[in-house]
Amino acid sequence: MIRFATIGTGFVVDWFLEGITACKEMEYAAVYSRSMETGRAFAQKYHVETVYDHMEDLAMDETIDAVYIASPPSCHFGQIMMMLNYGKHVLCEKPAVSNSKELELVLQAAQENDVVFLEAMKNVYTPGFRMIEELLPRIGTVKNAFIQTCRRSSAYDHFQKGIVEHVFLPKLSNGALMDVGCYAVHFLVKLFGMPQSIKADGIRLSNGSDGAGVILAQYQDMQAEILYSKMYDTEIPSQIQGEWGCMLIPDISHTREIRIVDRNGREELYNVPGTGVEDTRNDLVYEALEFQRLIMERRTDHPYHQNTVMTFQIMDEARRQMGMIFPADKIMEVL
Fold first, then answer.
1. pTM, to two decimals
2. Within 13 Å of residue 321, how many CA atoms lie on the same side as its CB?
């Protein structure tokens, strides 16, 4: 049995705990919160007895095998490194770290301690993504991809009223690119690999954060456009254009259906089949199952690492072109 703890008590942890009920080898054993009062209240909700408000106490608990981290992005690196160095497997919410240099150190620590590290990039572990991969040959050689993650956020409504939530705080390594753009970037590299070059620009908010942006990616024989936003919605589906047809994906974060239109206008609609846990709309179940599998099989050097590496290389360059520098970037410069 894999005994795991959670770091954080926000709604994402609730979603994850709902998803992990499908993992028969996982046992929820401990809660960490900066506030003991908050931690105890959260633990009581899930009938968990052990609560920590000191990170190192959790790290030193030899009865805990794995940790799920859902704290602000700027906290991830230090928390991940501590847990890995104490021999704990780590599943960390996206974005796993602030930049590529932090990621390099994380992957090195995971290898040295022979433990699993996995970024919780939920959209690429789902049956919907696997169906996209399976159907892609139906449209022939891909020449263009338009990948969008645009949804107006209540945090932007609050920002307009002068209330700045953590998602728009650069000091916490956050912003629209890191919060929702990462889904599109990871989706792109998982399907097509690392582009030869990118061009990026964005809409900056008054505090220096980004509210929306676009990344143009150039491959040897195809192009891609990533559009992301927390300021506005779009009804345009993500599309992958091939020489034989076009694939339309309404939502890359929660893929439930895929439509293919061939050169003659004929349409085929594909509904994503169930996998035994199909009754849930909670896609975090699939990342939880994959985390469990990697631990059980001791797959510490798994192929997901390379996708995360490419994602951060692109986001680092996009932020450089937009002039967005996080405090975490400056720290890594002196190491």
1. 0.95
2. 17
